Amino acid sequence: MSVWNQKLRKSVMAAGVSAALAFSGAAVAQQGGQAAPHGGQGGAPAQGQMPEMTDEQRQLMEEMRSVQQELQQTQAKLSEMEQQAYENNPELGQKREALQAKIAEKMSSGGYDAEKEFEEMKATMSKYEGGEQQPSEEEVEAFRQQQQEFQQRQQQAFQNEEVQSMAQDLRGDVEQVMKENNPEAEELFAKMEKQSEEMQQLREKAMEMRQGG
């Protein structure tokens, strides 16, 4: 049950329109997703599926875990600063709401209602939050399909030029406020970019290693 709840919460947060517009989410969307939370583990097969791991592979996996942890710590600090920026600047919240509405608009077509689908996913999460009930296999599969379509439409919406322009404008404003309010923000932004690039390089190296094997 707890595993279901954790996965469900992650899915809703990953797919949610509002969550996608948090600073780190917007950054990931713009940078191609190199800082996705699951990335440090998603590229690695389960231990039971890897009968033989060379010392080089083992060292690479440890390095990936270390960089991923550092990246998440940096993102957590920036997220706190971002939240403070929104709390102290109502106009930023208005611009974020406008962007959310635009994304929902671009996602909604052919009878699909993005806001309605998002609320349904949140309701599903709430239904099993306490752990008293357990979802059936049919409910789990239905949610996965619902989430998949939502995320696909969200990704398509982020390809829209108007959405990208609004997101870039909002991100620039948020960054400026964060830097004005927090002397270390600029350093953290640079650190996040460096860590993201390092993580991407390690993933590419892991891919080459697996293909070479």
How would you characterize this protein structure?
Residues 1-5 and 7-47 have low confidence and may be disordered. 79% of the residues lie in helices and 0% in strands. The longest helix has 34 residues, at 55-88. It contains ten helices and no strands. By secondary structure, the chain is mostly helical. Helix 5 (55-88) packs antiparallel against helix 10 and helix 7 (114-127) packs antiparallel against helix 8.
Fold topology:
Layout: H1 2-15, H2 17-20, H3 23-31, H4 39-42, H5 55-88, H6 90-107, H7 114-127, H8 137-158, H9 161-181, H10 185-212
Helix pairs in contact: 1-7, 1-8, 3-9, 5-6, 5-9, 5-10, 6-8, 6-9, 7-8
The major β-sheet equals:
none
> What's the end-to-end separation, in Å?
37 Å
- Total helix count? 10
Strand content: under 5%
Enumerate the spans where pLDDT stays under 50 for 5 or more consecutive residues: 1-5, 7-47
Rg to the nearest angstrom? Answer: 19 Å
Shape: globular
